[in-house]
Amino acid sequence: MHVRSSRLVWIPLTARLIRLALNDRAEFARTLEATVPADWPGNDFAPILPLLLNGLERDPQPEVWDGAIMLEGQEPVLIGSMGLKGGPDDEGTVDIGYDIVPAYQNHGYATEMACALVDWAFERGDVQKVIADCLPDNQGSIRVLQKLGMQEIGLEGGLLRWSLTKQQWHVIEKQS
């Protein structure tokens, strides 16, 4: 399963891909048929890879939510990671997170893929709300979340918390 936008493709990470990313970057790049920048995964996503691998080894057929990479371009390059952190909870809430390679920040990629991924999530029927957290001084993430139409709902544990309901998303879609 892949989610596509005009410039990007979102590819879920499998156990095999994660093992390659951790142990054989050259084969990882060949398997993806993409360039993998030296600074991927970043400091935020690197510690997540072993956790994702552990989960995939326990359940090799999970539903796609957590770990995915984004590729850009005709000659694809891995530009970052994005996921919905475990899928919907009992209330239908998912938590979106992303990490963009520094050289590809400020090109609208996070906003573009987040829009496509939020749209995909709401189309499923079991997702009613998307939330996100970011540091109060992370202006790049704040801009992405604002462009998605998310509403800032307050400071929690030193992080700004954001929210977007399915109903709000449908209003935003009609306006664009």
From TrEMBL:
InterPro entries: Acyl_CoA_acyltransferase, GNAT_dom, N-acetyltransferase. Pfam families: Acetyltransf_3. CDD domains: NAT_SF. GO terms for molecular function: acyltransferase activity, transferring groups other than amino-acyl groups. Residues 15-167 form the N-acetyltransferase domain. This is N-acetyltransferase domain-containing protein. It comes from Dictyobacter vulcani.
